[in-house]
Amino acid sequence: MSPNASITMPLLDPLLNDFFWRALLGGLGVALLAGPLGCFVVWRRMAYFGDTLAHSALLGVALGFLFHTNLNLSVAATCVVLALILVLLSRNRALATDTLLGILAHSALAIGLVALSFMPDVRVDLTGYLFGDLLAMTRQDLAWIFGGGLVVLGLLWWLWQGLLMATIHEELARVEGYPVARLQLVLMVIFSLVIAVAMKMVGVLLITALLIIPAATARRLASSPEKMVVMAIGFGMVAVACGLTLSWNLDTPAGPSIVVSAFVTFLLVYTLIRRSRA
Amino acid sequence: MKDRHDQPLVLLEQASIAFDDSPVVDHVSLSVNRGDILTIIGPNGAGKTTLIKAILGIQPLTSGRIHKSPSLQIGYVPQHLQLQPTLPLSVRRFMALTGASETDTRAALERTGIGHLFRKSVHHLSGGEMQRLLLARALVRKPDLLVLDEPAQGVDINGQAALYDLIRAVRDELQCGVIMISHDLHLVMAATDRVICLNQHVCCSGYPADISHDPAFVETFGRPVAESLAVYHHHHTHRHDLHGDVIEGQPDVTQCEHNHAPS
Fold this sequence. Notes:
The complex is a heterodimer.
Chain A: H1 13-16, H2 19-43, H3 47-67, H4 71-91, H5 97-117, H6 126-131, H7 139-168, H8 170-175, H9 180-202, H10 207-219, H11 225-250, H12 254-272
Helix pairs in contact in A: 2-7, 2-9, 2-10, 2-11, 3-4, 3-5, 3-9, 4-9, 7-9, 10-11, 10-12, 11-12
Chain B: H1 2-6, E1 10-19, E2 22-32, E3 37-41, H2 48-56, E4 63-68, E5 74-77, H3 91-96, H4 102-111, H5 127-139, E6 145-149, H6 157-174, E7 177-181, H7 185-191, E8 194-199, E9 201-206, H8 208-211, H9 215-221, H10 223-231
Parallel strand pairs in B: 3-7, 3-8, 5-6, 6-7
Antiparallel strand pairs in B: 1-2, 1-4, 8-9
Helix pairs in contact in B: 4-5, 9-10
Protein backbone atom coordinates (compact mmCIF):
# COMPACT_ATOMS: atom_id res chain seq x y z
CA MET A 1 0.00 0.00 0.00
CA SER A 2 1.64 3.25 -1.05
CA PRO A 3 1.19 6.22 1.26
CA ASN A 4 -1.30 8.79 0.08
CA ALA A 5 0.82 11.65 -1.20
CA SER A 6 -1.93 14.27 -1.05
CA ILE A 7 -1.46 14.94 2.67
CA THR A 8 1.97 15.97 3.83
CA MET A 9 3.17 17.00 7.24
CA PRO A 10 6.74 18.36 7.37
CA LEU A 11 7.72 17.17 10.83
CA LEU A 12 5.84 13.90 10.81
CA ASP A 13 6.68 12.99 7.24
CA PRO A 14 9.53 10.56 7.91
CA LEU A 15 7.37 8.89 10.51
CA LEU A 16 4.26 8.74 8.34
CA ASN A 17 6.19 7.08 5.54
CA ASP A 18 6.59 4.04 7.74
CA PHE A 19 3.44 1.95 7.79
CA PHE A 20 4.09 0.66 11.30
CA TRP A 21 4.08 4.20 12.72
CA ARG A 22 1.00 5.11 10.70
CA ALA A 23 -0.72 2.08 12.16
CA LEU A 24 0.37 2.98 15.69
CA LEU A 25 -0.71 6.61 15.31
CA GLY A 26 -4.08 5.54 13.92
CA GLY A 27 -4.52 2.96 16.65
CA LEU A 28 -3.76 5.46 19.39
CA GLY A 29 -6.24 7.88 17.80
CA VAL A 30 -8.96 5.23 17.79
CA ALA A 31 -8.18 4.35 21.42
CA LEU A 32 -8.61 8.03 22.29
CA LEU A 33 -12.16 7.90 20.92
CA ALA A 34 -13.00 4.40 22.09
CA GLY A 35 -12.27 5.37 25.72
CA PRO A 36 -15.11 7.82 26.35
CA LEU A 37 -17.56 6.08 24.02
CA GLY A 38 -16.74 2.70 25.55
CA CYS A 39 -17.59 4.09 28.97
CA PHE A 40 -21.04 5.10 27.72
CA VAL A 41 -21.49 1.64 26.21
CA VAL A 42 -20.67 0.06 29.59
CA TRP A 43 -22.75 2.54 31.62
CA ARG A 44 -25.82 2.36 29.39
CA ARG A 45 -25.60 -1.38 28.71
CA MET A 46 -25.28 -0.75 25.00
CA ALA A 47 -22.84 -3.55 24.18
CA TYR A 48 -25.30 -5.46 22.04
CA PHE A 49 -26.54 -2.25 20.50
CA GLY A 50 -22.97 -1.34 19.56
CA ASP A 51 -22.46 -4.77 18.05
CA THR A 52 -25.55 -4.29 15.90
CA LEU A 53 -24.34 -0.91 14.65
CA ALA A 54 -20.88 -2.29 13.95
CA HIS A 55 -22.31 -5.20 11.96
CA SER A 56 -24.25 -2.80 9.79
CA ALA A 57 -20.98 -1.08 8.87
CA LEU A 58 -20.35 -3.74 6.24
CA LEU A 59 -23.64 -2.78 4.60
CA GLY A 60 -22.30 0.77 4.62
CA VAL A 61 -19.18 -0.41 2.80
CA ALA A 62 -21.32 -2.10 0.14
CA LEU A 63 -23.45 1.02 -0.28
CA GLY A 64 -20.31 3.13 -0.51
CA PHE A 65 -19.01 1.01 -3.41
CA LEU A 66 -22.43 1.05 -5.07
CA PHE A 67 -22.76 4.85 -5.02
CA HIS A 68 -19.04 5.56 -5.35
CA THR A 69 -18.96 7.65 -2.20
CA ASN A 70 -16.35 7.88 0.51
CA LEU A 71 -16.50 4.65 2.52
CA ASN A 72 -16.13 6.36 5.91
CA LEU A 73 -19.07 8.62 5.11
CA SER A 74 -21.30 5.84 3.82
CA VAL A 75 -20.50 3.67 6.86
CA ALA A 76 -21.25 6.50 9.29
CA ALA A 77 -24.49 7.34 7.44
CA THR A 78 -25.64 3.69 7.39
CA CYS A 79 -24.94 3.38 11.12
CA VAL A 80 -26.91 6.56 11.89
CA VAL A 81 -29.89 5.33 9.86
CA LEU A 82 -29.80 1.92 11.56
CA ALA A 83 -29.50 3.56 14.99
CA LEU A 84 -32.61 5.64 14.29
CA ILE A 85 -34.51 2.55 13.10
CA LEU A 86 -33.48 0.74 16.28
CA VAL A 87 -34.65 3.59 18.50
CA LEU A 88 -38.00 3.77 16.72
CA LEU A 89 -38.57 0.01 16.72
CA SER A 90 -37.64 -0.42 20.39
CA ARG A 91 -40.35 2.12 21.32
CA ASN A 92 -43.20 -0.06 20.16
CA ARG A 93 -42.49 -3.07 22.28
CA ALA A 94 -43.70 -5.83 19.99
CA LEU A 95 -40.37 -7.64 20.37
CA ALA A 96 -37.88 -7.69 23.22
CA THR A 97 -34.96 -5.38 22.55
CA ASP A 98 -32.37 -8.15 22.52
CA THR A 99 -34.40 -10.13 19.97
CA LEU A 100 -34.72 -7.03 17.82
CA LEU A 101 -30.99 -6.33 18.05
CA GLY A 102 -30.17 -9.95 17.26
CA ILE A 103 -32.31 -9.84 14.13
CA LEU A 104 -30.92 -6.55 12.88
CA ALA A 105 -27.27 -7.23 13.76
CA HIS A 106 -26.97 -10.41 11.80
CA SER A 107 -29.33 -9.38 9.01
CA ALA A 108 -27.30 -6.21 8.44
CA LEU A 109 -24.09 -8.22 8.32
CA ALA A 110 -25.63 -10.80 5.96
CA ILE A 111 -27.13 -8.15 3.67
CA GLY A 112 -23.74 -6.45 3.55
CA LEU A 113 -21.99 -9.69 2.58
CA VAL A 114 -24.59 -10.55 -0.06
CA ALA A 115 -24.51 -7.03 -1.50
CA LEU A 116 -20.72 -7.12 -1.77
CA SER A 117 -20.87 -10.44 -3.62
CA PHE A 118 -23.05 -8.77 -6.29
CA MET A 119 -20.18 -6.46 -7.16
CA PRO A 120 -17.68 -8.68 -8.95
CA ASP A 121 -15.80 -5.70 -10.34
CA VAL A 122 -15.08 -4.46 -6.82
CA ARG A 123 -12.20 -6.28 -5.22
CA VAL A 124 -12.83 -6.17 -1.50
CA ASP A 125 -10.53 -7.49 1.18
CA LEU A 126 -13.36 -8.97 3.26
CA THR A 127 -11.09 -10.20 6.03
CA GLY A 128 -9.77 -6.68 6.36
CA TYR A 129 -13.26 -5.28 6.96
CA LEU A 130 -14.30 -8.07 9.31
CA PHE A 131 -11.16 -8.26 11.44
CA GLY A 132 -9.31 -5.05 10.63
CA ASP A 133 -6.31 -4.26 8.54
CA LEU A 134 -4.36 -1.87 10.63
CA LEU A 135 -1.18 -2.24 8.65
CA ALA A 136 -2.91 -0.92 5.52
CA MET A 137 -3.63 2.39 7.25
CA THR A 138 -3.21 5.25 4.77
CA ARG A 139 -2.61 8.92 5.48
CA GLN A 140 -6.20 9.56 4.47
CA ASP A 141 -7.36 7.08 7.12
CA LEU A 142 -5.29 8.97 9.68
CA ALA A 143 -6.88 12.23 8.60
CA TRP A 144 -10.32 10.64 9.09
CA ILE A 145 -9.43 9.30 12.52
CA PHE A 146 -8.05 12.57 13.83
CA GLY A 147 -10.57 14.81 12.04
CA GLY A 148 -13.54 12.71 13.09
CA GLY A 149 -11.96 12.30 16.49
CA LEU A 150 -11.77 16.03 17.00
CA VAL A 151 -15.49 16.35 16.22
CA VAL A 152 -16.37 13.47 18.56
CA LEU A 153 -14.23 14.68 21.46
CA GLY A 154 -15.49 18.23 20.99
CA LEU A 155 -19.12 17.09 21.16
CA LEU A 156 -18.46 14.94 24.22
CA TRP A 157 -16.66 17.78 25.99
CA TRP A 158 -19.43 20.24 25.21
CA LEU A 159 -22.36 17.98 26.18
CA TRP A 160 -20.64 16.03 28.95
CA GLN A 161 -22.83 17.09 31.91
CA GLY A 162 -26.06 16.40 30.04
CA LEU A 163 -24.90 13.07 28.62
CA LEU A 164 -23.79 11.96 32.06
CA MET A 165 -27.03 13.03 33.75
CA ALA A 166 -29.15 11.38 31.05
CA THR A 167 -27.12 8.20 31.57
CA ILE A 168 -27.56 8.24 35.35
CA HIS A 169 -31.31 8.84 35.30
CA GLU A 170 -33.24 9.79 32.20
CA GLU A 171 -36.34 11.24 33.86
CA LEU A 172 -34.39 13.18 36.45
CA ALA A 173 -32.35 14.66 33.61
CA ARG A 174 -35.51 15.65 31.76
CA VAL A 175 -37.03 17.29 34.83
CA GLU A 176 -33.76 19.16 35.36
CA GLY A 177 -34.08 20.57 31.86
CA TYR A 178 -31.62 18.53 29.80
CA PRO A 179 -32.78 17.80 26.21
CA VAL A 180 -32.51 14.03 26.71
CA ALA A 181 -33.90 12.93 23.33
CA ARG A 182 -31.49 15.19 21.44
CA LEU A 183 -28.57 14.07 23.60
CA GLN A 184 -29.35 10.45 22.79
CA LEU A 185 -29.41 11.30 19.11
CA VAL A 186 -26.00 12.96 19.41
CA LEU A 187 -24.66 9.87 21.15
CA MET A 188 -25.93 7.71 18.25
CA VAL A 189 -24.18 9.95 15.73
CA ILE A 190 -20.95 9.85 17.77
CA PHE A 191 -21.25 6.08 17.96
CA SER A 192 -21.64 5.82 14.19
CA LEU A 193 -18.66 8.11 13.53
CA VAL A 194 -16.43 6.09 15.84
CA ILE A 195 -17.47 2.83 14.19
CA ALA A 196 -16.72 4.31 10.78
CA VAL A 197 -13.17 5.32 11.74
CA ALA A 198 -12.43 2.28 13.93
CA MET A 199 -13.68 -0.27 11.40
CA LYS A 200 -10.52 -0.11 9.31
CA MET A 201 -8.42 -0.84 12.35
CA VAL A 202 -10.07 -3.65 14.28
CA GLY A 203 -12.83 -4.68 11.88
CA VAL A 204 -16.60 -4.74 12.35
CA LEU A 205 -16.60 -7.95 14.37
CA LEU A 206 -14.15 -6.68 16.99
CA ILE A 207 -15.08 -3.01 17.42
CA THR A 208 -17.31 -3.65 20.42
CA ALA A 209 -14.45 -5.41 22.18
CA LEU A 210 -12.20 -2.39 21.76
CA LEU A 211 -14.98 -0.24 23.20
CA ILE A 212 -15.98 -2.25 26.24
CA ILE A 213 -12.84 -4.08 27.38
CA PRO A 214 -10.72 -0.98 28.22
CA ALA A 215 -13.76 0.70 29.83
CA ALA A 216 -14.56 -2.39 31.91
CA THR A 217 -10.91 -2.59 32.95
CA ALA A 218 -11.00 1.07 33.99
CA ARG A 219 -14.14 0.53 36.07
CA ARG A 220 -12.13 -1.59 38.49
CA LEU A 221 -9.91 1.36 39.37
CA ALA A 222 -11.91 4.52 38.74
CA SER A 223 -13.62 6.57 41.42
CA SER A 224 -15.35 9.07 39.14
CA PRO A 225 -16.82 8.98 35.62
CA GLU A 226 -14.10 11.29 34.29
CA LYS A 227 -11.29 9.19 35.76
CA MET A 228 -12.88 6.12 34.22
CA VAL A 229 -12.79 7.78 30.78
CA VAL A 230 -9.13 8.76 31.13
CA MET A 231 -8.17 5.28 32.33
CA ALA A 232 -10.15 3.65 29.53
CA ILE A 233 -8.22 5.74 27.00
CA GLY A 234 -4.97 4.68 28.69
CA PHE A 235 -5.84 0.98 28.69
CA GLY A 236 -6.98 1.22 25.07
CA MET A 237 -3.67 2.78 24.05
CA VAL A 238 -1.69 0.13 25.92
CA ALA A 239 -3.71 -2.56 24.13
CA VAL A 240 -3.06 -0.95 20.74
CA ALA A 241 0.69 -0.63 21.39
CA CYS A 242 1.01 -4.20 22.73
CA GLY A 243 -1.21 -5.65 19.99
CA LEU A 244 0.76 -3.96 17.22
CA THR A 245 4.08 -5.08 18.68
CA LEU A 246 2.73 -8.61 18.90
CA SER A 247 1.49 -8.43 15.33
CA TRP A 248 4.83 -7.02 14.11
CA ASN A 249 6.97 -9.62 15.79
CA LEU A 250 4.85 -12.73 15.49
CA ASP A 251 3.04 -11.89 12.27
CA THR A 252 -0.39 -12.24 13.90
CA PRO A 253 -3.42 -10.33 12.56
CA ALA A 254 -3.44 -6.81 14.01
CA GLY A 255 -7.09 -6.42 15.11
CA PRO A 256 -7.32 -9.69 17.04
CA SER A 257 -3.88 -9.06 18.57
CA ILE A 258 -5.10 -5.73 19.96
CA VAL A 259 -8.24 -7.32 21.41
CA VAL A 260 -6.19 -10.12 22.97
CA SER A 261 -3.88 -7.52 24.54
CA ALA A 262 -6.89 -5.64 25.92
CA PHE A 263 -8.28 -8.87 27.33
CA VAL A 264 -4.98 -9.76 29.02
CA THR A 265 -4.86 -6.27 30.60
CA PHE A 266 -8.43 -6.79 31.79
CA LEU A 267 -7.55 -10.15 33.38
CA LEU A 268 -4.44 -8.75 35.04
CA VAL A 269 -6.25 -5.74 36.49
CA TYR A 270 -9.14 -7.81 37.79
CA THR A 271 -6.96 -10.48 39.39
CA LEU A 272 -4.07 -8.40 40.69
CA ILE A 273 -5.53 -5.09 41.79
CA ARG A 274 -7.91 -4.55 44.66
CA ARG A 275 -11.30 -3.17 43.80
CA SER A 276 -11.84 0.59 43.96
CA ARG A 277 -14.24 1.73 46.66
CA ALA A 278 -16.42 3.66 44.27
CA MET B 1 -46.24 37.66 48.91
CA LYS B 2 -49.82 36.94 49.81
CA ASP B 3 -50.77 36.99 46.14
CA ARG B 4 -48.18 34.35 45.36
CA HIS B 5 -49.67 32.08 47.98
CA ASP B 6 -53.12 32.41 46.50
CA GLN B 7 -51.99 31.41 43.02
CA PRO B 8 -51.81 27.65 42.61
CA LEU B 9 -48.36 26.36 41.67
CA VAL B 10 -49.95 23.67 39.56
CA LEU B 11 -53.52 23.39 38.38
CA LEU B 12 -54.82 20.36 36.52
CA GLU B 13 -58.19 20.60 34.79
CA GLN B 14 -59.89 17.43 33.60
CA ALA B 15 -56.53 15.91 32.73
CA SER B 16 -56.66 12.57 30.93
CA ILE B 17 -53.87 10.34 29.70
CA ALA B 18 -54.48 7.23 27.60
CA PHE B 19 -52.04 4.63 26.30
CA ASP B 20 -53.32 2.83 23.20
CA ASP B 21 -56.83 4.16 23.82
CA SER B 22 -57.05 2.68 27.31
CA PRO B 23 -57.29 5.44 29.88
CA VAL B 24 -54.66 5.48 32.60
CA VAL B 25 -55.58 8.83 34.08
CA ASP B 26 -59.19 9.84 33.66
CA HIS B 27 -60.43 13.43 34.03
CA VAL B 28 -58.35 14.35 37.05
CA SER B 29 -58.51 17.87 38.41
CA LEU B 30 -56.30 19.05 41.23
CA SER B 31 -54.41 22.08 42.42
CA VAL B 32 -51.45 22.60 44.70
CA ASN B 33 -50.61 25.89 46.36
CA ARG B 34 -47.50 26.99 48.18
CA GLY B 35 -47.28 25.27 51.54
CA ASP B 36 -49.65 22.44 50.57
CA ILE B 37 -48.80 18.79 50.96
CA LEU B 38 -50.91 16.73 48.61
CA THR B 39 -50.60 12.98 48.83
CA ILE B 40 -51.77 10.70 46.06
CA ILE B 41 -52.70 7.22 47.19
CA GLY B 42 -54.25 4.37 45.27
CA PRO B 43 -53.77 0.76 44.27
CA ASN B 44 -51.08 -0.44 41.87
CA GLY B 45 -51.74 0.54 38.28
CA ALA B 46 -53.96 3.40 39.33
CA GLY B 47 -52.02 5.90 37.22
CA LYS B 48 -50.29 7.67 40.11
CA THR B 49 -46.84 7.77 38.56
CA THR B 50 -48.26 8.70 35.14
CA LEU B 51 -50.15 11.57 36.75
CA ILE B 52 -47.08 13.05 38.41
CA LYS B 53 -45.07 12.62 35.22
CA ALA B 54 -47.66 14.83 33.56
CA ILE B 55 -47.15 17.39 36.33
CA LEU B 56 -43.38 17.14 35.83
CA GLY B 57 -43.89 17.85 32.13
CA ILE B 58 -42.42 14.59 30.86
CA GLN B 59 -45.74 12.93 29.98
CA PRO B 60 -48.06 14.75 27.57
CA LEU B 61 -51.78 14.88 28.33
CA THR B 62 -54.23 13.20 25.97
CA SER B 63 -56.84 15.78 26.90
CA GLY B 64 -57.44 18.38 29.54
CA ARG B 65 -55.23 21.23 30.63
CA ILE B 66 -52.36 21.87 32.95
CA HIS B 67 -51.34 25.29 34.25
CA LYS B 68 -48.06 25.89 36.00
CA SER B 69 -47.06 29.15 37.61
CA PRO B 70 -44.43 30.90 35.49
CA SER B 71 -40.79 29.92 36.11
CA LEU B 72 -41.88 27.12 38.41
CA GLN B 73 -38.84 25.29 39.74
CA ILE B 74 -39.59 21.62 40.38
CA GLY B 75 -37.57 19.31 42.61
CA TYR B 76 -38.17 15.67 41.73
CA VAL B 77 -37.45 12.61 43.84
CA PRO B 78 -37.97 9.63 41.52
CA GLN B 79 -39.20 6.24 42.55
CA HIS B 80 -36.68 3.58 43.47
CA LEU B 81 -33.59 4.95 41.76
CA GLN B 82 -31.47 2.14 40.43
CA LEU B 83 -28.05 3.46 39.56
CA GLN B 84 -25.81 1.51 37.23
CA PRO B 85 -23.02 0.04 39.36
CA THR B 86 -20.75 0.30 36.32
CA LEU B 87 -20.76 4.08 36.64
CA PRO B 88 -18.46 5.21 39.48
CA LEU B 89 -20.20 8.10 41.20
CA SER B 90 -19.65 9.80 44.53
CA VAL B 91 -22.35 11.64 46.46
CA ARG B 92 -20.40 14.84 45.83
CA ARG B 93 -20.24 14.32 42.05
CA PHE B 94 -23.91 13.35 41.86
CA MET B 95 -24.84 16.56 43.68
CA ALA B 96 -22.49 18.61 41.47
CA LEU B 97 -24.46 17.55 38.38
CA THR B 98 -27.24 19.90 39.54
CA GLY B 99 -24.80 22.77 39.04
CA ALA B 100 -24.98 23.68 42.73
CA SER B 101 -21.98 25.15 44.55
CA GLU B 102 -20.14 23.05 47.10
CA THR B 103 -21.43 25.24 49.95
CA ASP B 104 -25.04 24.74 48.87
CA THR B 105 -24.42 21.03 48.34
CA ARG B 106 -23.04 20.60 51.84
CA ALA B 107 -25.94 22.58 53.31
CA ALA B 108 -28.51 20.42 51.48
CA LEU B 109 -26.81 17.20 52.58
CA GLU B 110 -26.65 18.43 56.19
CA ARG B 111 -30.33 19.37 56.00
CA THR B 112 -31.30 15.85 54.99
CA GLY B 113 -28.97 14.37 57.61
CA ILE B 114 -26.36 12.80 55.34
CA GLY B 115 -23.58 15.39 55.48
CA HIS B 116 -21.15 12.68 56.58
CA LEU B 117 -21.62 10.82 53.27
CA PHE B 118 -20.20 13.65 51.12
CA ARG B 119 -17.30 11.62 49.75
CA LYS B 120 -18.95 8.23 49.74
CA SER B 121 -19.87 6.26 46.62
CA VAL B 122 -23.59 6.34 45.80
CA HIS B 123 -23.43 2.57 45.28
CA HIS B 124 -22.75 2.00 48.98
CA LEU B 125 -25.74 3.88 50.34
CA SER B 126 -28.63 2.22 52.13
CA GLY B 127 -32.19 2.67 50.90
CA GLY B 128 -32.86 5.44 53.41
CA GLU B 129 -29.59 7.23 52.66
CA MET B 130 -30.31 7.12 48.93
CA GLN B 131 -33.77 8.65 49.42
CA ARG B 132 -32.22 11.41 51.52
CA LEU B 133 -29.60 12.01 48.85
CA LEU B 134 -32.32 12.33 46.22
CA LEU B 135 -34.20 14.72 48.49
CA ALA B 136 -31.02 16.76 48.96
CA ARG B 137 -30.60 16.89 45.17
CA ALA B 138 -34.15 18.18 44.85
CA LEU B 139 -33.66 20.73 47.66
CA VAL B 140 -30.43 22.19 46.32
CA ARG B 141 -32.43 23.39 43.31
CA LYS B 142 -34.53 25.53 45.70
CA PRO B 143 -37.81 24.16 44.37
CA ASP B 144 -41.19 25.87 44.45
CA LEU B 145 -42.75 22.46 44.08
CA LEU B 146 -41.39 19.20 45.40
CA VAL B 147 -42.61 16.04 43.65
CA LEU B 148 -41.86 12.71 45.31
CA ASP B 149 -42.71 9.27 43.96
CA GLU B 150 -42.93 6.86 46.88
CA PRO B 151 -40.13 8.55 48.82
CA ALA B 152 -40.11 5.98 51.62
CA GLN B 153 -39.79 2.89 49.44
CA GLY B 154 -37.01 0.62 50.67
CA VAL B 155 -36.73 2.49 53.97
CA ASP B 156 -37.35 0.76 57.29
CA ILE B 157 -40.38 1.77 59.31
CA ASN B 158 -38.66 4.19 61.70
CA GLY B 159 -36.78 5.71 58.81
CA GLN B 160 -40.06 6.19 56.98
CA ALA B 161 -41.57 8.24 59.79
CA ALA B 162 -38.39 10.33 60.01
CA LEU B 163 -38.42 10.86 56.24
CA TYR B 164 -42.02 12.12 56.24
CA ASP B 165 -41.17 14.40 59.17
CA LEU B 166 -38.26 15.74 57.14
CA ILE B 167 -40.46 16.40 54.11
CA ARG B 168 -42.88 18.33 56.28
CA ALA B 169 -40.06 20.35 57.86
CA VAL B 170 -38.68 21.17 54.41
CA ARG B 171 -42.10 22.34 53.32
CA ASP B 172 -42.22 24.68 56.34
CA GLU B 173 -38.76 26.08 55.59
CA LEU B 174 -39.07 26.57 51.84
CA GLN B 175 -42.80 27.25 51.81
CA CYS B 176 -42.93 25.05 48.73
CA GLY B 177 -45.78 22.88 47.57
CA VAL B 178 -45.39 19.12 47.90
CA ILE B 179 -46.97 16.39 45.80
CA MET B 180 -46.14 12.85 46.77
CA ILE B 181 -47.22 9.34 45.98
CA SER B 182 -47.26 6.96 48.87
CA HIS B 183 -48.26 3.49 49.90
CA ASP B 184 -47.50 4.08 53.57
CA LEU B 185 -51.07 4.93 54.37
CA HIS B 186 -50.86 5.30 58.13
CA LEU B 187 -47.78 7.52 57.91
CA VAL B 188 -49.24 9.55 55.08
CA MET B 189 -52.37 10.24 57.04
CA ALA B 190 -50.30 11.79 59.82
CA ALA B 191 -48.01 13.80 57.58
CA THR B 192 -50.25 15.17 54.88
CA ASP B 193 -52.64 18.06 54.47
CA ARG B 194 -54.74 16.69 51.67
CA VAL B 195 -55.17 13.26 50.17
CA ILE B 196 -56.32 12.26 46.72
CA CYS B 197 -57.30 8.66 46.32
CA LEU B 198 -56.66 7.81 42.69
CA ASN B 199 -57.90 4.83 40.76
CA GLN B 200 -57.59 6.22 37.24
CA HIS B 201 -60.17 8.81 38.24
CA VAL B 202 -60.23 10.60 41.58
CA CYS B 203 -62.17 8.25 43.87
CA CYS B 204 -62.28 10.72 46.66
CA SER B 205 -60.24 13.57 48.02
CA GLY B 206 -60.15 15.55 51.19
CA TYR B 207 -58.45 15.80 54.54
CA PRO B 208 -57.02 12.74 56.26
CA ALA B 209 -59.50 12.71 59.13
CA ASP B 210 -62.46 12.72 56.75
CA ILE B 211 -61.15 10.54 54.02
CA SER B 212 -60.83 7.33 55.98
CA HIS B 213 -64.60 7.41 56.50
CA ASP B 214 -65.37 8.13 52.86
CA PRO B 215 -67.33 5.25 51.30
CA ALA B 216 -65.22 5.40 48.15
CA PHE B 217 -62.05 5.07 50.22
CA VAL B 218 -63.47 2.15 52.18
CA GLU B 219 -64.46 0.62 48.84
CA THR B 220 -60.94 0.95 47.44
CA PHE B 221 -58.88 -0.15 50.40
CA GLY B 222 -61.30 -2.34 52.33
CA ARG B 223 -62.85 -1.79 55.71
CA PRO B 224 -60.00 -3.12 57.86
CA VAL B 225 -57.54 -0.64 56.36
CA ALA B 226 -59.93 2.25 56.68
CA GLU B 227 -60.73 1.42 60.30
CA SER B 228 -57.12 0.97 61.27
CA LEU B 229 -56.39 4.41 59.84
CA ALA B 230 -59.28 6.03 61.61
CA VAL B 231 -57.92 5.04 65.01
CA TYR B 232 -54.21 5.28 64.25
CA HIS B 233 -52.29 8.23 65.63
CA HIS B 234 -48.61 8.16 64.95
CA HIS B 235 -46.40 9.20 67.82
CA HIS B 236 -42.81 8.67 68.80
CA THR B 237 -41.57 7.33 72.07
CA HIS B 238 -37.97 7.71 71.02
CA ARG B 239 -35.91 8.56 67.98
CA HIS B 240 -33.36 6.70 65.92
CA ASP B 241 -30.51 8.16 63.97
CA LEU B 242 -29.69 7.00 60.46
CA HIS B 243 -27.65 4.06 61.65
CA GLY B 244 -30.65 2.72 63.53
CA ASP B 245 -29.19 3.55 66.93
CA VAL B 246 -31.41 5.18 69.52
CA ILE B 247 -30.54 8.82 70.01
CA GLU B 248 -29.74 9.30 73.68
CA GLY B 249 -31.55 11.99 75.60
CA GLN B 250 -34.66 11.83 73.47
CA PRO B 251 -37.87 11.28 75.44
CA ASP B 252 -39.15 7.92 76.62
CA VAL B 253 -36.34 5.67 75.57
CA THR B 254 -37.16 3.38 78.46
CA GLN B 255 -40.62 2.70 77.07
CA CYS B 256 -39.16 0.86 74.14
CA GLU B 257 -40.73 -2.54 73.83
CA HIS B 258 -38.07 -4.05 71.62
CA ASN B 259 -34.49 -4.63 72.66
CA HIS B 260 -31.70 -2.54 71.27
CA ALA B 261 -28.66 -4.68 70.80
CA PRO B 262 -25.55 -3.10 72.21
CA SER B 263 -23.49 -1.68 69.37
